[in-house]
């Protein structure tokens, strides 16, 4: 059963990923990405990682790709792209090289580790007795707020700083435009 | 993973304890079928209810020809729409245009799967016996139940967004950009006000949340009312219902994101919209009003839960119609101000107040003092925010071109 689900989801994930790369229309590419994300969410479910599956959909499908689509629609770049021009010279060769490198690394990692890429399972509790402990939200929270609390807080701070930075930069840009318009005024 | 609990992919359900056989599969299918049928009929009645009620409020008669009290009006409209010509605009993106209505409809159905509609929660966890098997009166009880609601409401954005974009016409596009901005912003307020409930019930599973609330001890009181008010406002915005129905502002956008849709696809959008109203009301009842909890006034154990759930649900459905008949539509900037500058900070602050109350209890501090200190900090921060907003407004007035509004 788990294998069957895995095969179907893997096919969806791969098809979606190919769609992202091959679709000529940016909106179709973004939709393929949503397909990939949903496939991943079901894969998480298959591993009984319910919380990760839900977060995958809420954050990635629900917020990030929506923002992609939003930008695509607002900027009006939702047209077929001319693929004959290469904006940065040599980027295609580089892309192929980097892609192959990442692939080789991933495969090497998979083959070399004996306990699987995610390490041993943490869950050692008796599920029937500790239903609450079993909830993987609780497990994630336990790890996140004890062992990795500094990394977690640092990430939070990083995100906040980037938001503030984005706001400051967009405001600055608008003003410098204006300063150019009324040059020598000050 | 755990033979004793059965497959947990679909949630912890006493039905699956001890393996899954044909009977279990059939019962699950029955629950799915009943939920599906009930939702469809409920939408039919909801549309009739809304039209009838709103015409009462406006001194009109409303639909009165099809069936007794016009109750079959929706059915007649549905059949009419079904047989109308299905137009697909020349400029549209055909594939996405056809896909969009389903992206609206499917999430609307799925949300209802986690709502416990009945069961005896007085003392127990709402188990009922169906054909000799113990189960919950909800299609599924995943461990992340309430996150599924958030996930589905974020997926529903796609339906609206893609419908507007794929129509290849400017008014639907404008409406869909508006709609998705609105839905994405209010999702934050929705999630944060929900966090207060999760803090108090300590579980994401809807069944657990209902079980934590006893006959009268609803989350509405436990979380001190504010989260429910925020949730109700955010849900109204998320549903695109008046007074937040900028998505379908006919006066400005011709029709809204579905201007180019006709026939059955148009009907699907409306089906999804009214279904969302019903499911969101059901979610509010589950989260804040104790779901099927209530004093047992019947002698049959399971009936009381269903009746209580229905009564509470009707309260919200009535309120939604009432809002539509009463309130004028918000302006777009007012909508964004309300969401980002009031609801999100308030729900975040309230979550911290509730958390400080709990922490004070755990540590043996004076709870009232902790809450008063937290409220004072909140007030100070609110003052700072108000000051910042006022300064920003003044600068905008002095220098209308600089920066962003």
TL;DR of this structure?
Chain A is mainly α.
Describe this structure in words.
The complex is a heterodimer of chains A (186) and B (405). Chain A has 186 residues and is mainly alpha-helical. Chain A has a domain of 81 residues: Up-down Bundle (Four Helix Bundle (Hemerythrin (Met), subunit A)). Chain A has 7 helices and no strands. In chain A, helix 1 runs antiparallel to helix 2 and helix 2 runs antiparallel to helix 3. Chain A is globular, with a radius of gyration of 22 Å. Chain A starts with a helix and ends in a 5-residue tail after the last helix. Chain B has 405 residues and is mainly α. Chain B has one domain. A two-stranded antiparallel sheet of chain B has the order 1-2. In chain B, a hairpin with a 2-residue loop joins strand 1 and strand 2. In chain B, helix 4 runs antiparallel to helix 5. The longest helix of chain B has 36 residues. At the A-B interface, helix 2, helix 3 and helix 7 of A face helix 4 and helix 5 of B.
Number of helices of chain A: 7
Low-pLDDT parts of chain A are 125-129, 181-186
Kindly report the average pLDDT value of chain B.
84
Total strands of chain B: the figure is 2
CATH class placement of one domain in chain A: Mainly Alpha
Annotated CATH topology of one domain in chain A: Four Helix Bundle (Hemerythrin (Met), subunit A)
Quaternary organisation:
heterodimer
Give the percentage of residues in beta strands of chain A: under 5%
What's the domain count of chain B?
1
Strand order of the largest sheet of chain B: 1-2
Structure class of chain A: mainly alpha
Shape field of chain B: globular
CATH superfamily of one domain in chain A: NADH-ubiquinone/plastoquinone oxidoreductase chain 6, subunit NuoJ
What is the global morphology of chain A?
Answer: globular
The CATH architecture of one domain in chain A would be Up-down Bundle
């Amino acid at each position: 059963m788990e294998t069957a689900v895995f095969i179907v989801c893997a096919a969806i994930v791969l098809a979606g990923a190919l769609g992202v790369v091959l679709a000529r229309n940016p909106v179709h590419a973004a939709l393929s990405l949503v397909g990939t994300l949903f496939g991943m969410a079901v894969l998480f479910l298959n591993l009984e990682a319910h919380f990760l599956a839900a977060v995958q959909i809420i954050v990635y499908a629900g917020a990030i790709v929506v923002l992609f689509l939003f930008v695509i629609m607002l900027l009006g770049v939702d047209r077929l792209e001319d693929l004959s021009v290469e904006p940065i010279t040599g980027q295609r060769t580089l892309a192929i090289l980097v892609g192959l490198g990442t692939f080789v690394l991933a495969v090497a990692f998979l083959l070399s580790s004996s306990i699987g890429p995610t390490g041993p399972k943490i869950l050692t509790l008796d599920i029937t007795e500790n239903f609450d402990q079993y909830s993987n939200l609780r497990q994630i929270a336990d790890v996140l707020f004890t062992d990795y609390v500094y990394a977690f807080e640092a990430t939070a701070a990083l995100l906040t700083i980037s938001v503030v930075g984005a706001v400051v930069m967009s405001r600055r840009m608008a003003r410098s435009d204006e300063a150019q318009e009324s040059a020598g005024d000050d | 993973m755990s033979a004793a609990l059965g497959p947990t992919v679909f949630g912890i359900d006493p039905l699956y304890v001890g393996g899954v056989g044909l009977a279990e599969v059939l019962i699950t299918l029955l629950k799915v079928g009943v939920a599906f049928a009930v939702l469809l009929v409920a939408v039919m009645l909801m549309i009739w209810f809304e039209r009838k009620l709103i015409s009462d409020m406006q001194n009109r008669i409303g639909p009165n020809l099809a069936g007794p009290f016009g109750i079959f009006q929706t059915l007649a409209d549905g059949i009419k729409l079904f047989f109308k010509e299905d137009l697909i605009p020349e400029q549209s993106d055909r594939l996405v245009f056809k896909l969009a209505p389903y992206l609206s409809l499917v999430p609307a159905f799925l949300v209802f799967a986690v709502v416990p509609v009945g069961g005896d929660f007085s003392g127990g966890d709402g188990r009922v016996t169906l054909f000799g098997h113990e189960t919950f009166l909800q299609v599924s009880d995943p461990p992340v139940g309430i996150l599924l609601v958030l996930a589905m409401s974020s997926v529903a954005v796609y339906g609206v967004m893609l419908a507007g974009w794929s129509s290849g016409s400017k008014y639907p596009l404008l409406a869909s950009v508006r709609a998705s901005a609105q839905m994405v912003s209010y999702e934050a307020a929705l999630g944060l006000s929900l966090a207060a409930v999760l803090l108090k019930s300590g579980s994401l599973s809807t069944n657990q949340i209902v079980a934590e609330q006893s006959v009268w001890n609803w989350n509405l009181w436990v979380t001190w009312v504010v989260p429910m008010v925020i949730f109700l406002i955010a849900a109204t915005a998320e549903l695109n219902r008046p007074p937040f129905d900028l998505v379908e502002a006919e006066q400005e956008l011709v029709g809204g994101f579905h201007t180019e849709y006709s026939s059955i696809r148009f009907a699907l959008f409306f089906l999804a919209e009214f279904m969302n109203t019903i499911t969101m009301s059901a979610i509010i009842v589950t989260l804040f009003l104790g779901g099927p909890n209530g004093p047992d006034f019947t002698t049959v154990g399971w009936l009381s839960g269903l009746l209580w759930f229905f009564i509470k649900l009707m309260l919200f459905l009535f309120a939604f119609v009432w809002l539509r008949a009463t309130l004028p539509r918000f302006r777009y900037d007012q909508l964004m101000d309300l969401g980002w500058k009031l609801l999100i900070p308030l729900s975040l602050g309230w979550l911290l107040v509730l958390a400080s109350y709990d922490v004070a209890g755990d540590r043996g501090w004076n709870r009232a003092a902790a809450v008063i200190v937290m409220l004072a900090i909140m007030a100070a921060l609110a003052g700072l925010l108000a000051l910042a907003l006022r300064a920003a407004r003044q600068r905008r007035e002095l220098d209308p071109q600089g920066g962003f509004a």
